[in-house]
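FAQ: What does a ligand-bound record look like?

Like this one, built around 6-O-phosphono-beta-D-fructofuranose:
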Amino acid sequence: MLRVGMLTSGGDCQALNAAMRGVAKGLSSNVEELEIYGFLDGYKGLIYGNYRLLSSSDFSGILTKGGTILGSSRQPFKLMRTPDANGLDKVEAMKQNYYKLNLDCIVILGGNGTQKTANLLREEGLNVIHLPKTIDNDIFGTDVTFGFQSAINIATDAIDCIHTTAASHNRVFIVEVMGHKVGWLTLYAGMAGGADIILLPEIPYDIKKVVAAIEHRTKAGKGFTILAVAEGAISKEDAKLSKKEYKKKQEKSPYPSVSYEIAAEIGKKLGSEVRVTVPGHTQRGGSPTPYDRVLCTRLGAEGAKAILEKDFGHMIAMVNNEVRRVPLENVAGKLKTVDPNAQIVKEAKLTGISFGD
Ligand code: F6P
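The answer part, i.e. the structure of the complex:
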């Protein structure tokens, strides 16, 4: 009998179900006796022993279904070693629940924080397989994470829709794109949507350069400008602040996010109104794209293969377009950011896109 646990942790994305299905089908097609236990609401389920035995019907019809059939929650890695309100040792509790069910392995789907906890559980002696999920695409050691391509589609759609109204009204528009501290999603959606200015956390902007780029377009007879701004975009001045100082500044800011601050600054300098659109969590919703469905099926299949070979402690990743097992200890805690000198950034600049730098 093979007993496998599964959980999805952190912010959801479109392709979590597709990835779980990939693992489940990979296992059930190759072993006679199999039990898959789904822990509910992320690590919370593993800590408090909330789980259910999943059957093959749970994995049917979910390839195209967004969200997660197991539910998810954020359980910050930095608090994992801190006992809960009732003094429960969370790490010990997770280990106990794993052993109580006599699991051979636990498959953990999630982003960076989730991966750090997965690695911690590995260090604690549990057999772990991690599948890299996040619309942010910021997991080190994999070319791509699942959810990223699906989110690009939605963010691009948002920019496309803004394009027509921006053109009708001759206005400056900002579309704020998710991505946490990195700019992958903004870079790709911005380029796909034909944004004129793309502002990323990795390339701090100078507001004067941003305004100059808008004026340059106006002089060239272009009545409107579209900015794709990452939610983590930062000005050159703010980038000089310490993390603590910047956090304090943000807390005191009258603006709900950096895009509104940029809009106000542009508005002041140009004497015109600037509109902000925030697609927000829509970027994590809906069905996975065909690319993500295939990616998840491939990662899931390799995850199943690793389990069958009892080869644990890995993230199942895409490396140079091939599915690979990457040791968790080599990647946990590292962030994959956009290189300001990357070819794609240079190509974008060549086509006239301003990064405000
Ligand atoms: O990590 C995925 C993500 O959607 C980020 O892009 C974003 O910053 C964050 O999660 C939002 O988190 P929450 O859903 O907790 O608001």
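Follow-up question: can I read anything off the structure? Yes, for example: The chain is about 40% helix and 15% strand.
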